[in-house]
Design a protein that fits this description.
16 helices, mainly alpha, single chain
């Protein structure tokens, strides 16, 4: 407890940012980059059909992981607030129940997604070859998810206990393990897409076991206890984690809808171009998430302790970092779209020209993406779940679905503008919500 108080309450906001947010962002990028590397290797070694199949299945895989992540985020917020209030026994109860719930519920979600997979892919318009590739990828992840789903949970708990650097190191170790297994299976043995998923699952499983061991051995400030009442705790965890879950699952539903339209209007090529952009997005967003997520315990801890001004100062530093990060990625996507696409797939001149055009348009998303993401993350950290949930839904589902209805008449060209226009609308909604809050706060 003394370690947490020193770290969260007494470290200066700037020093806290550099000690927690930067390692957190590096760790989150490392822990998610293997999905992008996995798709890169699939595209390079297995070809466009496997790449498109993996991108069709990937949203369903991530929906199952989103359940574990919801519990990880929701319980982390609750634990941080309880620790800030000095209620350590309640924090340990939440920790214990959330760990068990994450394993059970993420597994249930994965089984449901796998059972529904063939019907979903058929409705999307995929042919038999594409469905076979997607299912081989999906089934393998489902087998390992009781363990791999806990990666997100214990990564958050390491940061709550103040072990941010250990979390970063383990995420890097996990990325290296996943890459090593995938190179072995795809490059050395020339195996199929199911083995790409196996390589990532093995790397995640080994890393998860290592992260769990300090908690099992009682070496951390959070400890496993025998809980008595689960209902109230689970309700609190789900409420706190709901905004992130809705953002993740709504985003995956949007990806499924986008892939359906792309498959019908542009075929495998259009799906692959969007898949490349989404794989880049899966590097950028974890970096953004890592900045705020690594300091969510500090923000919640200070808010729970009545240090509201200090919590806001920490959040402002995170927001500035997100703005710089997003603008930098926008420039990269605008100046090097062809080079980025070519990393994933070899393409003829016509496909490459379409990819350059599409990625340049979708890359504009990040000019304003940081605004809504910062507002949503801060609201979640201090327990303002309604605001965070509303922004999550606007960002991931409501505005993208509305823009799909408006722009699908423009054909394939219109689909490329859905992502940046949705981000702009969500940023406007975030600014409006916070202006209304400031107005209410005035006497």
């Amino acid at each position: 407890m003394k370690h947490e108080q020193e770290f969260f309450l007494k470290t200066s906001p700037s020093k806290l940012f550099f000690r927690a947010a930067i390692p957190g962002a590096i760790g989150m990028i490392a822990s998610n980059i293997y999905f992008s590397v996995e798709m890169l290797l699939i595209g390079r070694f297995l070809g466009q059909t496997s790449f498109a199949g993996g991108n069709l299945a990937n949203p369903l895989v991530l929906i199952a992981y989103a359940v574990a992540d919801m519990i990880a985020v929701g319980s982390s917020i609750s634990i941080a607030l309880k620790l800030g209030e000095g209620k350590r026994d309640e924090a340990n109860k939440i920790f214990t129940i959330a760990s068990a719930a994450a394993a059970v519920l993420s597994t249930a979600a994965a089984v449901i997604m796998t059972a529904a997979g063939p019907a979903i892919f058929t409705l999307m318009g995929a042919d038999k070859a594409l469905i076979n590739e997607a299912m081989a990828y999906l089934v393998t992840y489902t087998i390992f998810i009781p363990l791999t789903g806990l990666v997100f949970v214990f990564d958050n708990y390491l940061r709550i206990c103040g072990h941010v650097r250990f979390s970063m190191v383990m995420n890097i170790v996990m990325a290296v393990l996943c890459l090593s297994f995938e190179l072995l299976f795809l490059y050395v043995f020339r195996l199929g897409i199911g083995y790409a998923a196996l390589g990532t699952s093995l790397g995640m499983s080994i890393s998860c076991i290592i992260c769990m061991m300090p908690f099992i051995r009682g070496k951390m400030s959070l400890r496993f206890v025998r809980p008595r009442s689960m209902k109230g705790i689970l309700r609190e965890v789900f409420t706190q984690g709901l905004p992130g879950f809705l953002n993740n699952t709504s985003g995956r539903i949007t990806s499924v809808l986008m892939n359906t339209l792309l498959l019908r209007l542009g075929g495998d090529v259009a799906v692959s171009i969007y898949g490349v952009f989404m794989n880049i997005d899966s590097i950028i967003v974890p970096g953004m998430y890592g900045v705020f997520d690594s300091l969510q315990p500090a923000i919640g801890y200070n808010w729970g302790a009545g240090r509201n001004d200090r919590a806001r100062q920490i959040a402002l530093r995170c927001t500035a970092a997100l703005a710089i990060m997003c603008l930098a990625f926008t420039l990269v996507l605008e100046f090097f779209p062809g080079q980025i696409f070519s990393l994933f797939l070899e393409a003829d001149a016509t496909t490459l020209s379409l990819a350059v055009h599409a990625i340049s348009i979708m890359g504009l998303t990040y000019i304003v993406r940081w605004i809504s993401y910062s507002c949503q993350s801060f609201s979640s950290a201090i327990g303002r779940n309604r605001e965070a949930t509303l922004l999550s839904l606007c960002s991931a589902l409501i505005f993208p679905a509305a823009m799909m209805l408006m722009l699908r008449g423009a054909g394939l060209e219109g689909l490329w503008y859905i992502t940046p226009s949705s981000a702009l609308l969500t940023a406007a909604a975030a600014v409006l919500i916070y202006m209304m809050r400031l107005r209410k706060a005035k006497p």
